[in-house]
Every structure is written in C-alpha cells, then in structure tokens.
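hey
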C-alpha cells in the first residue's frame, strides 16, 4: 500500500477529536502539570505560513513534554478585538462581529489541519462578552487602586488609521499597523500606571529564561538612568528650577539652562520675561512637532532665550542665561536641563548656534584633550576648571558633587525611567467598552461590578469622528445612564480599550475558561500558572510581553495572584522568507500559502519540513526542493515498515555478527539522546537529520531490526509527524480502530529513554609513536579527530618524556589506529 498522507491525517484528526485526546485535566499536583502556551492569533481570516512555523515548532516541544509524562495543557484562542475587523466592516458593510466570527471559523479549520495537540475545550475569544466582562472588571480594579487614571495628554494620532496609539505602537513616530507617520493630538485619555512598576519590571528580567535580546529590548524600553537632581535658583526671584542630569561631574561647565517648551515654570515667570510674546510663539510651534522631530540628532537645534531671566549655577554661583528649546522634552526627568556644551553633543550644537560659552571641565586621561572649538568630549576623564574638585576622576566626582550640593539642600540623587504610562483608551468601535461613568456631581465612577459586562452596542456608523471621538458617542442609548454612586443622570465613557489590554491576561483565563464568578479560580490558577513555556514572535518584545508582566504584578499586589512573572521561559520563532530569500509579501508574489501546501503534501510533510529548514529561532527561505526531500523521507519510513513486514512474514532473519547488532543498537540510543536534547533546545532541524541517519541504517539492515526498535523510531517521530507515527504504530500492532481509546494512541506512550551505556561511543585502542617508535597506547572513543587525538597525546606523561624540549615537526595520523609524533 502507498503512503497517502491526506487520508491518514483526516482519519486520525477525526479520531483524536472524538476521544478528546488533548484535553487537559486539572490535576492538583502543580509539578506534574505543564502549561505550554503559544501566542494566540488575531482572527485575520487566514493562517499564514508564519503561524504554522510558530505552532508546529511549539507543538513538537509540547508533544515531547506530554510523552514525558507531564499533564500538558496547550490552549489556543483568538485575540479578536482590533482595527482590521472594523476596517473590514467599513469597507464591506458587514458587522465586525460577523466578520470576526467568520474568520474564526475558518481559522479553526486551518488550525485543526496542523495536527497540533491544542486543547480546544479551553478556547477563549476576547470579543465575547463572557471574556471582556473580565477585561472590564480588571479596568475597574486598576481604577480603584489608582492604577487607571484619565488626563489630557498629547497623544499619538494616526490620521490614516484614525486611531490613538500607545507610545509602544508609535515607535519612531511611525504607526505600527500602517507604517505611516503619526501626529500629536491633545485629548483626554485613560492611562494605566505601568510606571509604578518600572523598577520591578526591570529587576524581574534577570530571573527569566528568555532570549537575551528580548530582555535587552525591554531593558532599553524601560530606560533607567541614574543621576542627580540639582536645583538652579532664578536670580532675584524666589523660584528654583530642578534639572535632571546623569553627569553632575560636569556642573562647572554648565553655561546655560534649557527648559522644555511645556515647562510650567515659564508661565510662572510671566511678566519677568521681557520677550514673553515671542517666547509664547516659539512654544506654540514646538508643541505641534512630533517628539521624533524634536529629538533628531541631525536636525538643527532651535530655541529662544528668556530675556531678563538668569539662573544661578549652584556650583560656582555664576549667572547663566535661560533658554526654551524643543530638544528638551517635557515628560522626561524634570523637563529642564543644565547645558554643558563642552561635554554634550546637543548642548554643543546649540551653543555654537547661539554663541554661548563652552568651558572644558573633563579632560580625557590619555590624549592631550580635544579641541573644544570643534568637537565635544562625552567620555570619562579628570576634572579641570572645577574649583575644589579639580583632579578628581569624573565617575568619583559625580558622587562627590551631589553630596556637596546636597549638604546645602540643592541636590539629591535620583533615578528616572524612559518608560511612560500606558495609554489604553481608543476612540474606536471594536474593543471592550471602558466601564466608567461620568457624573457632574461625583466625577468618574466605575460601573457596578454586578452590572458587567458593559455590552458593546450595535451602531450603524463605525467611523470615529474627525475630532477623534469614538463611534460609541453617537449612540445616545449607550451614553445616557445613571451614576453608579448617586443615581443621577450621567454619561458613559465612550472610548474602548486597546486590544493589548485583552491580551494582557488571556493566559490566566485558559486555566479556568468557563468560570463566571471570577476571571479564574484561585485553585485553577495555582495548579497551572505561571506559564512554563511561551512561544511566539519577537515583535511583541516590548508591547504584549511588557504589558502582561505589568498586569501580573499589579494583580499580585491586589491579592489575586501569587507569582511575580507570567512567563518563566520563552522562545521566539524565526521568520520564513519567500523562495527568493525576501520577506514574503503579496506585492512580491512570493507568499507561500500553507493551505495549498498541505493540500498537496499533507500536514506531516509540511510540519517536518518546517522543523528541518533551519534552527527554529532563525527561520529562513522556503525551499520547494526541501519539501520534496522531506516527502521522500517520510515515504522511506513508510517503505521501511512494509519491508520489515515482508521480512518478518518470511521469517527471513539473517544471522548477524555481534558487532553489527551492537552498532545498530548504539546508533538507536545515540539518536534517542540527540532527538531528546535537540527538541529541548529547539534544534528541530538537527533532530530531524539524526532521524534520517537512523532510518537509512534501518533500511540497510532491516533484517537486524527488531519490532521494539521500530517502535522507538515511531515514538521519536511522533512529535514531528504525529499522524504518520500513529498510523504506523497501529499497523504494527495490528490494532483495530473500533474500540480505540486514549490509552491506545501512540501519543499516550512514553517518549523513549536512551541507555547511556549503549549510547556511548565505541572505544578503540590508539597506538602512539614518537618518531616512528611505539611509546604508548590508550583507549579512546571511536572516530576521534586528529586534533583531539593530538591534544590528548601531548598531555600524556609517557609521551611528554619523549617530546620535552623538542619542537614538533609534524604529526602523522591514521584514523582509528595510530598517531605518530615527529620531532626534531
Ligand atoms: C548635563 C549633562 C552633561 C548631561 C553632559 C549629559 C552630558 P539619559 O541618559 O537619556 O537619561 N536631559 C535630562 N532631561 C532631559 C529632557 N527632559 N529632555 C532632553 N534631555 C534631557 O540622558 C540624561 C541626560 O539628558 C541628562 O544629563 C541631561 O543632560 C539630558 F556632559 O545633564 B545631562
Ligand atoms: Zn453621581
């Protein structure tokens, strides 16, 4: 009979579903449970090859864990709120819910075709009221704890998506979704106070088994800076301006002060500023600019002096001018900078333009110093022109100067973070409504918890208004309500939540997806969480992963969770490129459609190919030849079993030498060890190649192969090609499908263990000569390389005796037999 993947796969997928083989029971013993998680997809309507790559690698890992005896849970669901559904609704005039449900249906079919061990009974869909009820409940808990607040803020506004974006979604001033430039717009917005957790989010990284670069990205995003806050008095007025600096050691070189245009002190100074009108004009212009423009290194710095105002440098009591300039940002540090043009590039550029004094205060240790008329020196060195601190090393001077000024009450040590609060409100339709009510008398009030969920109303018009108001504002029935506190007439919040709020806690829901009393029960959370391994794309390094960590910590502090980190271990899959080595895109016509490939080859071949194509974390270009190679490989496995059966039927057992038998046994155990370790390390590619070697040997020496050897081969194959492995397993057993139970499946069997003794490399005796005379011999592993043999030999006392003080002219190596050291 021929191998027909499609037939085999349909049959087993149906059977496995019938007996709910992958459904995870909630077992009490936490240690035996293994929570295996893949990032849930957005229901775009099409699973692309990248999803397959993600899910297949993850599934191989999961299946081995199951076979190792863990009570494994591998859930899946849909991150179902979000813009594309709404855009589709606008374009095609169908309700976002209809569009989303249709896509989910189709994607479930696609997901099933992968043959993954997902536990479908735990499926969550974030746009369902029984889910977003809890998203809203979390919002209310955050509000009650002071972790959710509303304020007017310049927000990132994408005119193309007509949406407000979080900072994380507008990196570099570019919309993460449409990749078009983002503008600034002042709006009342809801924020989550993630900054309360900045330090813990940073510290917690060190215990996580995550890829190093991901941790680094989070670290940079959080952006901790240590330094000092120093007060600069304004001459003649009872006003002080605190500045934040990471270089207090440069304070004697501070020749002017710079304020952010948004700095509140400017209004306080008011009439004391002689050119107030011009200053205000400058400020208005600056506010329109994007942060990215303001920070751009290459751009010419602009600013305006506050005439009539001088600040006093507290270190040397010198009066220095005060400027407003847009290169200083309002939301970082204190919004004011002590400018040191000799040692800071931005200050230097600015000083050059406005002809301000440049005083060297740090001299490099090695060279004679730099020409300060032409360039800055930003490094470490020794202090000069700094009064009593002259001669001190810059690092040490930082501490000393802060301590000195602190005594006078003019400075303190301080730490600032780049991280800002998370903007969670969106003026869009397709999201969880923010469960807040505004009452003229009582202010913002959370909806009563018993009235949750606040259902998303049906509206006709999904477009936000030009002023950036949510489409929900058009539904009077939705807006008008009573105040949860005083009962008077009040209005609902019409903004919805950022979809990243939905995905910040879905991994908790999987533990107890049907619970309607709580987002998940304490007991179920205890037995499943935290997640043991999380697998997904690196593109979420700062968005989803940071938010989820914040949620976990905040909920822990409210007493709902008793762990600190949601995802203990994480791995990212690489990216599959087109056949041409380019990123897949419709415009390049190089997109691989997984459905078509699976139709043509079957899921097992595609699974195995995705595993084989390269290290999981790297990915690589799609190669049709590689797919056909894997097709041949699986056919050979099929053929091996046919061949075995024929030989067995004919009782054609050959007498084999002991050595032949031992060699085959050794290879089998070595392969078990390799596949086991490779899966643990996400090196599926090398696991597959070692399976290929084993299958070749089995084909060559089928007469020597025992039934239990073949079983072991199938067990090793099971994580990669689960359908084929099951089919051959059942055939080998001659089992019937009628009474098929969970325990009968190959996927309920234990992953093979290797015997270290049998897996050991064979030993040989290597003869050692010096200048052609036998001087020694020793036992070593078979196949030792010339380099390794040489190193080992030269370490041996017996040989050292002969080579001492001599030069080794050459080495003659006869593999497996002899090594001859030739000296002068
Ligand atoms: C004086 C100085 C001298 C500085 C020197 C640097 C070098 P990071 O490392 O990014 O934290 N700064 C402070 N607040 C700012 C704001 N709101 N907008 C723009 N720049 C600001 O950078 C800290 C440094 O950035 C601070 O140290 C300050 O300039 C500037 F030789 O103070 B420094
Ligand atoms: Zn009220």
């Amino acid at each position: 009979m021929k191998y027909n993947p499609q037939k085999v796969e349909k049959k087993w997928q149906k059977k496995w579903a019938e007996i709910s083989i992958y459904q995870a029971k909630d077992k009490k013993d936490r240690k035996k449970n293994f929570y295996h998680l893949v990032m849930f997809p957005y229901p775009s309507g099409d699973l692309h090859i990248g999803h397959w790559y993600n899910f297949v690698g993850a599934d191989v890992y999961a299946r081995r864990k199951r076979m190792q005896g863990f009570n494994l849970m591998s859930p899946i669901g849909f991150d179902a709120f979000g813009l594309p559904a709404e855009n589709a609704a606008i374009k095609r005039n169908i309700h976002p819910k209809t569009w989303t449900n249709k896509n989910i249906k189709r994607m479930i079919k696609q997901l099933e075709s992968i043959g993954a061990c997902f536990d479908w009974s735990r499926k969550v869909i974030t746009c369902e009221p029984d889910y977003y009820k809890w998203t809203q409940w979390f919002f209310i808990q955050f509000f009650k704890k002071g972790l959710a607040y509303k304020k007017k803020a310049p927000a990132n506004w994408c005119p193309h998506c007509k949406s407000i974006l979080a900072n994380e979604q507008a990196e570099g001033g570019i919309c993460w979704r449409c990749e078009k430039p983002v503008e600034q717009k002042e709006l009342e917005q809801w924020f989550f106070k993630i900054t309360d957790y900045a330090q813990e989010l940073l510290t917690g990284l060190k215990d996580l088994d995550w890829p190093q670069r991901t941790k680094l990205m989070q670290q940079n995003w959080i952006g901790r800076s240590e330094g000092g806050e120093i007060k600069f008095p304004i001459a003649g007025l009872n006003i002080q301006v605190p500045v934040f600096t990471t270089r207090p050691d440069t304070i004697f070189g501070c020749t002017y002060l710079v304020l952010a245009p948004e700095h509140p002190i400017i209004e306080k100074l008011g009439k004391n500023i002689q050119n107030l009108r011009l200053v205000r004009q400058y400020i208005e212009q600056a506010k329109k600019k994007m942060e990215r423009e303001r920070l751009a290194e290459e751009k010419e710095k602009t600013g305006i002096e506050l005439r009539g105002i001088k600040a006093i440098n507290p270190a040397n009591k010198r009066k220095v001018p005060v400027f407003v300039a847009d290169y200083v940002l309002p939301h970082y540090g204190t919004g004011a900078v002590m400018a040191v043009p000799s040692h800071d590039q931005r200050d230097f550029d600015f000083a050059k333009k406005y002809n301000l004094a440049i005083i060297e205060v740090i001299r490099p240790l090695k060279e004679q110093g730099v020409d300060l008329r032409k360039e800055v020196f930003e490094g470490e060195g020794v202090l000069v022109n700094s009064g009593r601190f002259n001669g001190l090393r810059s690092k040490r001077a930082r501490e000393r100067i802060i301590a000195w000024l602190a005594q006078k009450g003019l400075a303190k040590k301080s730490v600032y973070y780049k991280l800002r609060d998370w903007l969670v409100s969106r003026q869009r339709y397709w999201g969880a409504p923010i469960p807040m009510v505004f009452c003229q008398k009582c202010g913002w009030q959370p909806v009563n918890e018993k009235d949750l969920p606040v259902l998303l109303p049906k509206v006709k018009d999904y477009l936000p208004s030009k002023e950036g108001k949510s489409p929900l504002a058009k539904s009077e029935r939705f807006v008008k309500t009573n105040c949860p506190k005083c009962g008077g007439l009040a209005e609902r919040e019409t903004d919805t939540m950022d979809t990243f709020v939905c995905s910040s806690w879905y991994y908790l829901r999987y533990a107890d997806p049907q619970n309607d009393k709580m987002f998940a029960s304490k007991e179920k959370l205890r037995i499943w969480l935290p997640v043991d391994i999380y697998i997904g794309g690196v593109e979420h390094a700062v968005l989803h992963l940071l938010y989820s960590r914040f949620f976990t910590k905040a909920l822990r502090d409210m007493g709902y969770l008793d762990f600190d980190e949601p995802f203990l271990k994480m791995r990212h899959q690489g990216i599959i490129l087109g056949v041409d080595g380019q990123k897949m895109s419709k415009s390049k016509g190089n997109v691989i459609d997984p459905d078509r490939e699976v139709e043509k080859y079957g899921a097992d071949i595609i699974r195995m190919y995705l595993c084989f194509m390269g290290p999981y974390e790297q990915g690589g270009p799609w190669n049709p030849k590689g797919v056909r190679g894997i097709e041949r490989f699986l056919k050979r496995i099929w053929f091996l079993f046919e061949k075995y059966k024929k030989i067995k039927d004919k009782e054609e057992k050959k007498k084999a030498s002991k050595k032949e038998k031992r060699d085959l046994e050794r290879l089998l155990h070595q392969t078990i060890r390799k596949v086991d370790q490779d899966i643990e390390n996400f090196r599926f590619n090398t696991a597959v190649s070692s399976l290929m070697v084993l299958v070749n040997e089995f084909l060559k020496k089928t007469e020597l192969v025992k039934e239990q050897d073949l079983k072991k081969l199938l067990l090793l194959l099971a994580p990669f090609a689960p359908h084929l492995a099951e089919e051959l397993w059942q055939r080998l057993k001659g089992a019937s499908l009628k009474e098929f139970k969970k325990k009968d499946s190959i996927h309920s069997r234990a992953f093979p263990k290797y015997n270290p003794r049998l897996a050991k490399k064979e030993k040989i005796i290597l003869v050692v000569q010096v200048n052609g005379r036998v001087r020694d011999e020793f036992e070593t592993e078979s196949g030792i390389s010339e380099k390794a043999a040489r190193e080992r030999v030269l370490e041996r006392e017996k040989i050292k005796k002969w080579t001492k003080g001599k030069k080794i002219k050459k080495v003659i190596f006869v593999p497996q037999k002899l090594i001859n050291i030739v000296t002068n």
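The radius of gyration is 34 Å. The mean pLDDT is 92.
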